[in-house]
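Changelog-linked ticket: thiamine diphosphate example.
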Amino acid sequence: MQRLVEAVPPAAVTGGPNDPVLRPSALDPSQLRLAYRWVLLARLLDDKTAALYRSGLVPGGAFLSKGQEALSVSLAMQLQPGDIYAPLIRDTAGRLAFGETIQDALRSCIGSPLGPMRGRDGNVHRGRPKDGYLPMISHLGAIPSVVNGALIARRLQGKPMGIGATCIGDGGTSTGAFHEAMNQAAVERLPLVMVVADNQYAYSTHRSRQFACDSLLDRAVGYGVDGHAVDGTDLAACMQVMDRAARRAREGCGPQLIVANLLRLCGHGEHDDASYVDPALKESHVGRDCVKAAADWLIAHGMAAPGELSKMQTDVSAELEKAVDEILRDPAPDPNVEKWTALATAALRENAS
Amino acid sequence: MQRLVEAVPPAAVTGGPNDPVLRPSALDPSQLRLAYRWVLLARLLDDKTAALYRSGLVPGGAFLSKGQEALSVSLAMQLQPGDIYAPLIRDTAGRLAFGETIQDALRSCIGSPLGPMRGRDGNVHRGRPKDGYLPMISHLGAIPSVVNGALIARRLQGKPMGIGATCIGDGGTSTGAFHEAMNQAAVERLPLVMVVADNQYAYSTHRSRQFACDSLLDRAVGYGVDGHAVDGTDLAACMQVMDRAARRAREGCGPQLIVANLLRLCGHGEHDDASYVDPALKESHVGRDCVKAAADWLIAHGMAAPGELSKMQTDVSAELEKAVDEILRDPAPDPNVEKWTALATAALRENAS
Amino acid sequence: MSITYLEAIREAQARALGENPNVYIYGQDVGDFGGAFKATKGLAAQFPGRVIDAPISEDAIVGSAIGAAIQGMRPIIEMQFADFSTVGLNQIVNQAATYYWRTNVPCPITIRLPCGGTSGSGPFHSQSLEAVYAHFPGLVVLTPATVEDAYSMLLDAVAIDDPVIFCEHKFLYYHLKAEKLPTGALPVGKARIARAGRDLTLVTYSAMLHESLAAAEELATQGYQVEIVDLRSIKPLDTDTVMASVARTGRLLCVGEAWPWGGVTAEVIARVVSEGFDLLDAPPQRLNAKDTPIPFHPRLWAAHRPTAQSITAAARNVLNY
Amino acid sequence: MSITYLEAIREAQARALGENPNVYIYGQDVGDFGGAFKATKGLAAQFPGRVIDAPISEDAIVGSAIGAAIQGMRPIIEMQFADFSTVGLNQIVNQAATYYWRTNVPCPITIRLPCGGTSGSGPFHSQSLEAVYAHFPGLVVLTPATVEDAYSMLLDAVAIDDPVIFCEHKFLYYHLKAEKLPTGALPVGKARIARAGRDLTLVTYSAMLHESLAAAEELATQGYQVEIVDLRSIKPLDTDTVMASVARTGRLLCVGEAWPWGGVTAEVIARVVSEGFDLLDAPPQRLNAKDTPIPFHPRLWAAHRPTAQSITAAARNVLNY
Ligand SMILES: Cc1ncc(C[n+]2csc(CCOP(=O)(O)OP(=O)(O)O)c2C)c(N)n1
Ligand SMILES: Cc1ncc(C[n+]2csc(CCOP(=O)(O)OP(=O)(O)O)c2C)c(N)n1
Ligand SMILES: [Mg+2]
Ligand SMILES: [Mg+2]
């Protein structure tokens, strides 16, 4: 069987006019402006989450997506009603683009009973499975096989399969669970779009201590799946590569592995100053800010006027402030009304404690 | 970093004079005759084990190595004192070549208290860790990381590392544990020689339901390790490929992944008639008997005379019969002298039951 | 006609597949081969595409079942041996078991664990892990001891909206036989008085029921009437039925094939004494396997787990207190 | 000078590394970064090459420690959170724990599990898994509750020839302080009377010791003298010390932060009643976390686990029986 393995070198992904993969002319400006709106909102929402964390309103930790917005949004924007989306730790942008409300996001961070997790779980561990939006658990690698299963369900039910989209970090690829899930998706030839965000570090651990291949894209051929490389700091490139990967998945070409290079532009969580990050990396191409780069690119390619973008910023900020005002009025969860059972089946509940 | 990935097509592995990889002239006839002696003994030992099983002397099951002898022996024959060897289910030949006595093998099968596992564990779950010979547990994939650790120990102790050799089946590569261990070995650049015996089936499951790449060799590049393909039915080819892999491991080139094609020429265990095996596979090159093929090859290449080989068979049979006679006089384990503790530390034992 | 415990499991799956299009079976070698123990024999042919061979990937097997379950399916997962479920444990205890609690979306999976010891199976093909799963919130753990329960409780398991750990005992697969499949059954979660008696309450489950029944026969010849409670479900655990029996007998012995520390027997005793201390005329006792891995050789194995003989001795101690 | 529970863990590791060249530390981010909780801060610089960052591969992390241990090393494994040890559980319970029994070759590994709840940590960063590991034969399970024990028992753990599950409580990391490191200690495996009293034996361990001590203070103001047994080690479990205390008080309450089913509290009660039934003047009781995953929001979390307040109430019930 013929397999597509595109190892696009980062240099080619910045969008030169002669790059056959990436042609600005192939891009829909309105889609790009929309994507930009989401990454901007995601960035502001992250800043707001950090501010709430610092003021003590966020229990536990705050885990931001800075640097991963372009990659994240471009995956989610490929998704259609009926698709499955299982974002991970740094997918604020994708979540918003998939349809999550700002309120849902913030409520999860503060543990509001009105949020989707009702104070039981928090921060990035949120979702609404009924909407095809699956919540992560902390254990890295445990989610992709769940997406596989959702797709298998549709096959068995004779329903249109749609696609299943999920994300993992460079560190997460070292888990056995990730391997089993990739292999399972390949054997079952499922429309899984698996995005690896290689942001150079897993917590403090550099990728050189995490894997020994040159690029995680080298894993694609070993699973027998299509592989795509992309510059994760380049919104336009991400949009095009995701478009192709999602299309191939929908067309029955089996799992698609996308490997993006980028840098985490924040700590692992807000408790972490990330002082271990190599300054040279921050200065390099991989360290550039994908949100700012996207704005520059839109303007340089005549896809948006500067005034348009600053108006967007004003609108988005207002939307965000309104949501913050709303959720800060939420009550705290009440242990006395909490049901304290883990079982769905009422007849099987017992109260041993 | 440059990596060696040799994808020798099976056709080239049969040893034609123009094949740059495999030259009969490069082989040491005495080594080959020795290897043949081990595969012959392994085959006869397997037959004997099956006979003992049928006569009710082997508790549990009997798991034979038929078809894997050539591959197994050629790995073990690369090993030197101080190396680590962690064979798996179908390594009767390699175990013998590594120095296991026939008695140890048979005693494990009958659960003798005089065997290395003292009736506590049995059949292929045997070893003598003090001799660098590690016993497997049943959970597939759980052994390679243990070999990694033994090698890491030597590095930390400043001792010569030697190499660590282990084996897994096509099915075992689907385990997360296998993935984690391969990746760990690559990151630590350990002298791990990892042999994948792709014998077309995992129990009843055909490889097409186990992985989706063309060959498991395609995984090498994704781990960033050297890869070697070999025809597992060809003893001479196995000897040469293992020689090169082991040499590269010793020279500091990091983990070596060898993928061999062969067919299991028996059931999963002796309870299994393997009726699910595709008859066409049995008729094909992959289905040929590696022991018989080795004898033919030795004679055809003038490396042994027919009489020499039949004398070998007589000697080996006598050796085997003697060992059988010996171990059948062993006592059974006695529950009354059994210590019934899982702890090495006497002071921490308690007898809750 | 007569039907084995194993056949009952096959029949229950056939019925579940036949009655509910959302049921499917996934596990290693479950397809055309019919499973390592033949518990799915013929089902792949009878229900094309719905009895699916899995790669050797217990984590992904369970993970995918979770994804399918929340999309409305009712997966039945066959682990080849209970022992190998440790490799998929994280998905079971941290993802499946917490799903409903976290999201309000039920996660109905049946995970079949062929468990317990058989002669010569050794440390990695003999384990009884029910206590490990019962410790984690969010799981239902069933331990059928009879052909009838194997059948009816497996159907229950598939119908339950929560993840169910279905501990089927390999020792019972071929040896235990019934006349026919049951038409009714006790509700899942309820224990059963397997033998009535007024002198001692013997609480047990799974294969140990049969060793206990043999012990009770032996003790009956000595004039002791042992009441045997077959728990059937160890989570939830039917404390009421146990307590009612202890109220009648005043004496308690708990027998389990699993390891002692924190096992079913400890849990039952803790419940009985904290709620029914005054019912007891003698110290409650437990009998379990020894606290070592499960030995390979049949002679060691026979001494490792409780047997009719050791149960008889333990019961006599409680009776004579 | 004052030293925290976390610093004691760091100091014990520094000493172990300094005294024994076969000790090394392996885990995610343990190197230059010093670990997620800073338990290995500075050690990579002080002991070059012996404090090693691992990939996110808990199975291979434990597997490699087994290989190193049987070659004479004394690995200390840091799990980033106890909760993630479920992914490496198979290697722990099936390979490390059975190694000595199968081969006669000891497998000395210390597995550090940062465990227990802290506010806002939620279902996957708060677990207490000691009972799960204690159920499997072949493991030693330690649960230090004090700065002194964190230090001396970690040194013990490294010296022990068996795999040790070292449950260090995250809630105690920063808050619990001592004047100095201990020079002597109780032998490992022995429980300690943490507070003497004649009215009730309260058996507990780890962070619940401190909630229990607060409860005892409160009860003292009401005239009750509660004796507190700090188990220190839950496997082996020092039944003798518990029993001697129950012999003095006649009453027993067991408190644990883990889930109830088959937990330490069940095991302690089962032992006490089967061996010391006649010592009891009242039904023994237990208090655990609720049988649900551990909630994220601090208000839910505070109601989920036992606290000084709920312990006081439970103790009063036993005292007033
Ligand atoms: C199985 C498992 N082990 C350890 C952890 C602890 N942990 C949480 S995030 C993290 C680093 C993840 O790195 P990466 O996958 O590269 O994602 P990134 O944070 O860089 O986006 C670790 C080790 C975990 N969540 N799961
Ligand atoms: C983790 C795990 N899951 C399931 C099994 C049960 N099992 C034992 S052998 C086997 C098939 C192994 O196939 P393969 O790895 O190809 O080796 P082969 O038997 O073909 O030599 C299976 C599924 C196991 N031992 N370990
Ligand atoms: Mg990363
Ligand atoms: Mg195979």
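Closing comment: Example verified and attached. Residues B 169-171, 199, 201-202 surround magnesium ion (ligand 4) (CB under 6 Å). Chain C has two domains: 3-178, 192-319.
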